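Fold Annotation — chain and its backbone
Encoding — discrete vocabulary of local shapes
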Amino acid sequence: MDRTDPQLAANERSTLLEFLDFHRATLLIKTDGLNAAQLSQPIATSTLTLSGLLKHLALVEDDWIQSRFLGLPEQEPWASAPWDDDRDWEFHSAQHDDPTELRNLYRAACERSRRAVAGIDLDTLSVGVNRDGQRWNLRWILLHLIEEAARHNGHADLLREAIDGAVGE
């Protein structure tokens, strides 16, 4: 099954449809080659945690808006994180962080993003470039943030249900 990344600077209609097709293809890729028993198998244990998701999504906000879009240098705690030693540092270190501090880290990153993009045209291109030297428009970045949050909210649903049975929004 082929999956195509959405264009980095397409119009609104194309961007929306390409993101939808990307996620449609993702589900098909995830289920490809599995038989009925495998498709019906419940999830196994995982190292993923809600604290890790909070810290990861704070990183995602700062990385995409502050660093890639605006071109600003990384700020703490990202700037001094040992990324060379642990590519998933935010997930692994979160278990040692205070829950209130984690929630505040995420809230602050979201607020920085809101302030940074307020009033900016969706066609505005990023300062940063991808590995092919292309720049993202703000529309693409915002949709990517939606995708990232939506995907991890699905993980959060499963984690929360496993913790205390709470389900739903």
Notes: The helical segments are 12-31, 36-39, 50-69, 89-93, 99-117, 138-164. The chain is about 55% helix and 0% strand. The chain has two domains: 1-41, 49-164. The longest helix spans residues 138-164.
